[in-house]
Amino acid sequence: MNENVLTAESEPLATLLQGIRKTVKKAVRLTAEYRPPLNGERYLTDKEVAERLKVSRRTLQEYRNARLLPFIVFGGKVLYKECDIERLLEGNYRKAIR
């Protein structure tokens, strides 16, 4: 038999398994306790919205000026509610004609 076989009782493997168990416990606790900021509402930056809508940040500025997109200015930073962006997309969705 090979004497280099590792078992769960082998010190290096036992230490590794213990570390994995601790990490899994922490991950489970974090996911159970996770609450998105601001009452569950997620806010997006203009960069994130531009990427999602596939438009330039300048185009977003034009949409804001025309009041096509709801937005918040907080501390000089422009933020958008994710639900407002989703609602805007759903409201402008056009089904294909068959």
Automatic annotation (TrEMBL):
InterPro entries attached to this UniProt entry: DNA-bd_dom_put_sf, HTH_17
PANTHER family named among the record's database cross-references: HELIX-TURN-HELIX DOMAIN-CONTAINING PROTEIN, PTHR34585
One Pfam family of this chain: HTH_17
UniProt lineage: Bacteria, Pseudomonadati, Bacteroidota, Bacteroidia, Bacteroidales
Name of the protein this chain belongs to: DNA binding domain, excisionase family
Boundaries of every Helix-turn-helix domain copy: 43-92
Gene3D superfamilies (alphabetical): 1.10.1660.10
